[in-house]
């Protein structure tokens, strides 16, 4: 019994030390990330919105009791996994996916509450994501959504996206949406490798660079 108590205490102490150490490193890594250069860019992507057809990429998740009688489909929740392309044509270069939830959330006019992740799967942004939130008033030609964050290359991203309907085919329920994204993000001062996870190990490597010499730092630019 005494031995068990002793081992338990040791474990608690070791964990406390390790936790404090990892936490301090995380903080240093985060501080260094924020000291990096902020970069701005404009991205133009097209969302291939297949509401019908043989392989729809938008599906109903839930409906409220009043959805069927509501003029704005209030309470309809849909999930989507739409193809992102670099041009309006569905056969344009594939750049990623738009994934998330859209909810009809206005009792008066058609407007969606959007909760989307743009997941890039090619080019310099491969493996990075942008998080997009906001109100999408469908009756307006241009709708503005907020870029509230990102991962990978887009760490600490903020900005906005202007979206408009490029085309919509009633017969096939196929829509193409244009997104012009204006985003500022922090470029970290070490090279970003999509094959490694964004874990503590990555911060450890970064801290080692900082401790060694500033000349070893690499920019993403
Ligand atoms: C919604 O409709 C169902 C089925 O008609 C009913 O059982 C339920 O009480 C309704 N809920 C509300 C909140 O009105
Ligand atoms: C994107 O990154 C993944 C994972 O590293 C890789 O397998 C894939 O080939 C890359 N795609 C392109 C188009 O570069």
How would you sum up this structure, described in words?
It is built from 2 helices and 9 strands; from the N terminus they run H-E-E-E-E-E-E-E-E-E-H. Helix 1 packs across helix 2. Strands 1-3-4-5-6-7-8-9 form an 8-stranded antiparallel β-barrel. The N terminus and C terminus are likely disordered. It has a domain of 149 residues: Beta Barrel (AOC barrel-like). The chain binds 2-acetamido-2-deoxy-beta-D-glucopyranose (2 copies). This is Dirigent protein. It holds the Pfam family Dirigent. Its main location: secreted. It comes from Fraxinus pennsylvanica.
Concise overview:
The protein has two helices and nine strands; from the N terminus they run αβββββββββα.
Give the strand order, joined by hyphens, for the main sheet. 1-3-4-5-6-7-8-9
Name given to the CATH architecture of one domain: Beta Barrel
Instruction: Just give the CATH class of one domain.
Output: Mainly Beta
Bound molecule types: 2-acetamido-2-deoxy-beta-D-glucopyranose
Low-confidence stretches: 1-17, 197-221
- Please tell me what the overall shape is: globular
